[in-house]
Amino acid sequence: MSPAPSGRSAGAWRCRLIGLLTGVTLAATARSADLPTALLACREVQDNDARLACFDRESARLAALAEATTPLTPEDRFGLPRAVTPTKEETGPRRQEATVLRARLRLVASRSDGLIVFTLDNGQVWRQLEPGSDLFARPGDAVQLSKGAFGNYWLRGASGRTCRVVRDR
Hints:
Layout: H1 10-31, H2 34-41, H3 48-68, H4 74-77, H5 88-91, E1 100-110, E2 116-120, E3 125-128, E4 142-147, E5 153-156, E6 162-167
Antiparallel strand pairs: 1-2, 1-4, 2-3, 3-6, 4-5, 5-6
Helix pairs in contact: 1-3, 2-3
């Protein structure tokens, strides 16, 4: 395999591309389903220069799409992993971080492993981390999510009971 053009190593441009895709894939798939398909089609280009040009073109389209999306509110970012949320360098001065989120349950579902999945009225989906804590939660109940120590999140149901949760979506 010949080296990548412009003195870039193949590993370096792949790492940059993977980093870019990680940050904008959610926005791209939400806005346009054909962008990831077009990007994946670049893998089929045989000529190294043409393949790199294809990846550069498609990643530029993804980057432009990511810049056009509206920034997430503190409530939208609540519970997301740091890798998904913008860093201080990307956003300028540090934004206010939410430590408590109040919402209503839209759906409460039990998984086959006994864990409960909570879908909130704002679209967020949270999953119970340890089985056995019955909150007596029902759709329509008000809940409160709190950020705890060491990156833990706690969901308090209307019954006053709590369980440790993690955000799935």
